[in-house]
Fold this sequence. Notes:
The protein is of the alpha/beta class. The chain is 39% helix and 21% strand. It contains eight helices and 14 strands. α4 links the parallel β6 and β7 (105-108).
Amino acid sequence: MDFEYLKQKRILLVDDERELLDMVSSILKEDGFSNIKTAETVREAAAVSETFHPELAILDVMLPDGSGFELMERLKRSADYPVLFLTARGEDDDKFRGFGLGADDYMVKPFLPKELLFRVNAILRRCYKGENPLVILENSVIDFDRAEVIKNGEHIPLTAKEHDILAALYRNAGRIITIDALCSAAWGDNPFGYENSLMAHIRRIREKIEEIPSRPVSLITVKGLGYKLLLHTPGGK
């Protein structure tokens, strides 16, 4: 899918309700986001942000030791990244204050999961649209925006399924991703019975990204478990 690289963005969730934090984290993870940290207070959020370096913050307005408005101003003093308010406070004055401080969006609880995902993805596309996600492998480059592989000066198009499989592997670069997870990424909620099709797609992907497909160095089989994608490491193998 387009803009798949945005799923790698670091997201900070701040709310004093642990149940809501868990729910929002689950919604985001099911959509492919994996770099998520949570905090329940202004103080905790400030501490987390110092080492996590968020690229999007989703903030509640009412927090035990301050307000989300104060937290936003504090966070933006060290780095300027998009902010979405997700709060029970739906009064116009609160919305105007949030937008006036530079918030990118404002949602009122309760909310629909699909709407949250739509707004999060829209913010990330708008704020990071200038990025060009080129993934460097040992013998080729993947351009997810153009859905193609560049190898030896040749631009080789990817099919939709190849794109989805590679995107799932890239989200977990360097880690094993199971056969079931790859089938789910390519064929949706009912991936059973697609193992042979997956193997055929893996073979074709290797023909596109590897110098010697029968001796892969980027898309590795982990016997009995699944596959992993190894990115190129400058200065070494």
